[in-house]
Amino acid sequence: MDQQTLIAVLDRIIPADDFPSASQAGVQNYLAHILAREQRHNAAMIEGLIAELAAKNFAQRSADAQDALLKEYETASAFLQLIELVMEGYYAASDAPAWRMIGFRP
Amino acid sequence: MSNVEKYDAIIVGAGAAGLIVAALLAETGKQILILERGRKLTFDQVPRDHLRNHRYALYGHNTGPALDGHPRVRLSANGRPLQLAPHENGYHNNAMTVGGGTRVYGAMAWRFLPNDFRMASLYGVPQDSSMTDWPISYDDLEPFYDEAEWQIGCCGLAGENKFEGPRKRGYPMPPLRENPARRVMRGAAEKLGWSAFQPPFLINTQTYHRRAACPGCGHCVGFACPVDAKNGTHNTMLPRALATGRCTLVTEAFVERILTDARGVATGVSYFVDDNSPTSTQAIAKVIVVSAGAIESARLLLASASAREPHGLGNNHDIVGRNLQGHYYPGAQARFADPILDHIGPGVSVATCQFNHGNPNIIGGGMLANDFLRLPIVFNRTGLPPDTPRWGMANKRAMRELYSRSLTITGPVHEIPTPDARVTLDPNVRDKFGRRVIRLSGQVHLETIRTAHFMRDRAAEWLRAAGALEVWQNPITRYLSGGQHQAGTCRMGVDPKNSVTDSFGRVHGHENLFICDGSLHPTNGGFNPVLTIMALAFRNARHIALSL
Q1: Considering CB atoms only, which of B51, B343, B391 is closest to A105?
Q2: Which of B21, B138, B167, B488 could serve as B541's disulfide partner, Cβ 3.0–4.6 Å?
Q3: A13 touching B, CB under 8 A?
């Protein structure tokens, strides 16, 4: 998978504010892990999506242009599945920064 | 026959009921063998993995059974069999470990209401249902509810729930701490003229039996307690049983069948120890107590068919495995202008029994309460208002703003039993021991769905009265109910033609074979059933002792 494109997509799914973006929280590592294991059956589909976005120079676009492009994929199962996995990587990671962000106290 | 072990009683399943029976029998001087399919887990062996736990089992569980080698089959509505792993929807796993569900439960400690024991008398028998009264009343069970509350350890404030039946005395510990959700929802209930109160828990709010008080962590339901303040049978009754020196606990022991002699008398059990050894072990005893939960207990009776009882032990009238019930949980959610959560566990802090009975044109009803603290990923999946964008800054902002400002009101519907919701043995699929696996079929009765709609409306009404900015309702679809609250598959009764056991759990036609778990419940109340399972165990253990 093209890492530059992947990270750009992750960071539009969960952008940075005063708390980390998806990639700043290391969601790409979770993604690599889960796509090699429980979500192996979805790996090809998600790789296909990233390749398609890479071909459209996703990473080089402005944030607004990236969001506009992703909106076109909002009903695509590959993008919907990717969103699910990104949320898992961000909110379910042990002692995630996201826990402090929303107020969950382990 | 040198490897045949002999005991006074064999107990199959070290869960909510089995360990109570084990301790009480061992304390009367009996030699006990407990066979538990799961392992005995330390705190560190029950991981706090937010994607693999008993609250959110997306990729697995944090107790047994292992994901491979233990399938069940779910028969779909159109009759197609679907093979399922233990963590998948429709498998209806209850934690398989020493302590069973009590190891990871939320520990709500409800007594059923007096009217919960007489549903058929109150409401009749709806079409296609197997509605029936309990063979015992609330008054029969009251002394044993009391024993469960004091011996396992319960916190609460007696007298607050004006619908509760009479009780001999209060709780041994004061209720959990006050929180904002309770203040807000209590005010709303007052406005509506409803009675709302703090629910009881099998959780220490002060040092009790030399174990610590609850620290209020965010990993309560679905996880093991870090300070052992959550009272299950693993940390209360098991130590008592083992302290007698007369109780042997064998873990990872899968009981394949109950052995019977030519006259049909239960003589022992045959079991595998899960080390992939192909040979089974036999143990014999004067009394066998099956306490494996409503799904596995039914499986064991069915799998123990003999020439004398070809359809399974106690199953001459085709009732074993039928009437599987759990609890349908309808609910509504809301967001508020101000924070309503303090993020101190367990989270459930206010309840009402206003709608358990007496609802116009509704059969029964249920309790309503606010929910346990939600894991962040679960809130992301199920807690955001329906129009929230699923990605991007808007999603992140909603997570940040709404996690503290959202509340769910939900509760267990008193299900209408149906014989079609059932446990059988699958004719094709085998487990790692080569035994036929459980097949689950059927779905909840339509009256259960009707009650669910009624209760969901009450949940929404309560949230609106609390001044919520937005209220939305969780979807209601028809499915098979079971899960952690599984019950009903070996119902007790008076007449052997429409029940599996007598009112003490003794299997009809078998002097020395008992069931002791939620399987016995003819109906399952509009409450978390564990305190009732425990109370029945305290009661029935005394009776079982008389057989020894």
Answers
A1: B343
A2: B21
A3: yes
The partner residue sitting opposite A17, judged by closest CB among B218, B396, B404, is B396
Residues of chain A neighbouring B343 (CB-CB closer than 8 A): 103-105
Q: How far is A94 from chain B (nearest CA, A)?
A: 7
What is B208-275 written as a DSSP string? BTTBPPP---S--TTS--TTS-B--STTTHHHHHHHTT-EEEE-SEEEEEEEE-TT--EEEEEEEETT
Contacts of B376 in chain A (CB under 8 A): 91-92, 96, 98-99, 102, 104
Nearest CA in chain A to B223: A106
Which residue in this structure is represented by tokens 């569980």?
A: B61
Which of B49, B218, B390 is opposite residue A104, by nearest beta carbon?
A: B218
**Residue A76 in contact with partner chain B when CB distance is under 8 A:** no
Residue in the block written with tokens 């305290």: B538
Contact B381 A98 (CB under 8 A): no
Q: Is A53 on the interface with B (CB under 8 A)?
A: no
Which among A75, A60, A76, A77 has a CA at the least distance from the CA of A9? A60
CB B252 within 8 A of CB B37: yes
Distance between CA atoms of residues A36 and B194, nearest Å: 53
* A78 touching B (Cβ < 8 Å): no
d(CA B27, CA B6) in angstroms, rounded, equals 18
* Each residue's pLDDT expressed in tens, for chain B with a length of 548 residues: 446 789 999 999 999 999 999 999 999 999 999 999 999 999 999 999 999 999 999 999 999 999 999 999 999 988 899 999 999 999 999 999 999 999 999 999 999 999 999 999 999 999 999 999 999 999 999 999 999 999 999 999 999 999 999 999 999 999 999 999 999 999 999 999 999 999 999 999 999 999 999 999 999 999 999 999 999 999 999 999 999 999 999 999 999 999 999 998 999 999 998 766 778 899 999 999 999 999 999 999 999 999 999 999 999 999 999 999 999 999 999 999 999 999 999 999 999 999 999 999 999 999 999 999 999 999 999 999 999 999 999 999 999 999 999 999 999 999 999 999 999 999 999 998 899 999 999 999 999 999 999 999 999 999 999 999 999 999 999 999 999 999 999 999 999 999 999 999 999 999 999 999 999 999 999 999 999 999 999 999 999 999 89
Is some CB atom of chain B closer than 8 A to the CB atom of A14? yes
CB under 8 A, 24+ apart: contacts of A66-69: A66/A8, A66/A9, A66/A12, A67/A12, A67/B392
Half-sphere exposure of B402 (CA within 13 A, CB side): 25
Q: In degrees, to the nearest 5, what angle opens at C-alpha B285 toward C-alphas B284 and B287?
A: 140
| The two structure tokens encoding residue B382 | 């199920």
